[in-house]
Amino acid sequence: MAERIVLNTDIRKGKIDRNIYGHFAEHLGRCIYEGIWVGEDSPIPNTKGIRNDVVEALKEMKIPVLRWPGGCFADEYHWKDGIGPSEERKRMINTHWGGAVENNHFGTHEFMLLCEMLGCEPYINGNVGSGTVQEMSEWVEYLTFNGVSPMAELRQKNGQEDAWSVKYFGVGNENWGCGGNMRPEFYADLYRQYQTYVRNYGDNKIHRIACGANADDYNWTEVLMREATRFMDSITLHYYTLPTSDWNHKGAATGFGTDEYFTTLKKALFMDELVTRHIAIMDKYDPEKRVGLIVDEWGTWYDVEPGTNPGFLYQQNTIRDALVAGLTLNIFHKHSDRVRMANIAQTVNVLQAVILTEGEKMLLTPTYHVFNMYKVHQDAELLELTVDSPVYSYEGVEIPEVSASASVNAEGIIHVSLCNLNHASSAVLPLALRGLAGQASVSGTTLAGASIDAHNSFEQPEAVTPQAFSAFKLEGDTLTVELPPMSVTVLAITPQ
Ligand code: AHR
Q1: Ligand 1 atom at minimum distance from 96 CA
Q2: Which residue is closest in CA terms to ligand 1's atom 5?
Q3: Per-residue confidence band for 2, with pLDDT thresholds at 50, 70 and 90
Q4: Helix/strand/coil for 50
Q5: pLDDT of 121-161, one tens digit each?
Q6: Are 310 and 304 in contact, with CB atoms under 8 Å apart?
Q7: How do strand 487-495 and strand 414-420 relate by DSSP bridges?
Q8: Does 345 sit in the ligand 1 pocket, CB within 6 Å?
Q9: What spatial distance separates the first Cα and last Cα of the chain, rounded to whole Å?
Q10: Beta strands 4-15 and 427-434: pairing type?
């Protein structure tokens, strides 16, 4: 058999930043309100208004970083609306997302409390599109300044004595679109101006993040890197995977055909080319790789569930989404010398969510299980791995059948993540374990679907869950694995 995977267990390629496993939560639909925030008076068990079940699930998955408050909402958000006594906070319409009433009950203090409860880094996205330099500057002062100043006093008046520690700060979101419809030259100048007033106070060092490109808009990256490299620590990239090419008919989250299943995976694989090409531009202006690439919005985007508010972006999540997650995370690993953070859109009840809620009920989606299985890669060392994959073809179009990645953790345990994209066939592959002196013990976990749209519902919340995996045989230094159709598998190889 020609196809195989070669894993060089002794060739390390640098750290996989845990922040690649980051998430994104916007004031959109039922992500923040209902999904995360229910308020202290809710019958749903909560801590100071934040749902306990959701917090526990996200902690279990080791969420490393959370981006907030948008998205498009970020460039319409005025942070002072979300501080002070909650009953006095402004009520307004979220005009961008479904016309819902935004009561501002979830604001800066609540977000920082959430991050504290999750044990994750906050990533705050400031407003360039409709906000002022002063407003952004004061937000950073409010958050991080510990001396005598109007914003520090205001924070203290609102009950937070000490400044918080905030590392990641984004200067605008999608400023080529919902964040102001700007040209890259104009935004580059605005970025330089706004970031000047995003100050480092005391020991708090801000990692300044410039708004980057939409998908394959390579010119945006070119202009930003040319004009502003020395003012940024990272630049972003947004890419969503749609089954079709029509934003008005994106395709359904469940009940789709094999054609849409296949196209979705093919389009998800495009992330590799996108990241490679944006990085090539970054390399030109920043050969030392000081500036990171942050893919702070990615994931699948389908038509909303029938009967739900089109502005709420609520969609189901199937084994197809699990495969998109698995192969995309493998791509990010490969580029982890430059991709230092990624944030799947969005945490709860919106787009490719890891969690869905309905009243007091909560379920974990197939995408959640992939993040939970893959958490072993967080901060581990990437290992050199090559895949000579079998071909998966559908109606004359070909893609690789298998996506794979491997890392070694601080205890010397090697983890290999493997996705079999093929909807109909198992993939039987020999995995050559090079550089492993002596014996090894192997165990595994797999997530597979019985149909192309296998998913968890509130009636059957455990239809798609990880199972122990034993379809492998270790002979000498060859580990032959049989990956079920439509599956994501993680192997743990412990040298003896
Ligand atoms: O995630 C939904 C939206 O997609 C975000 O608000 C925006 O940044 C992007 O267009």
Answers
A1: 6
A2: 71
A3: low
A4: strand
A5: 999 999 999 999 999 999 999 999 999 999 999 999 999 99
A6: yes
A7: antiparallel
A8: yes
A9: 29
A10: parallel
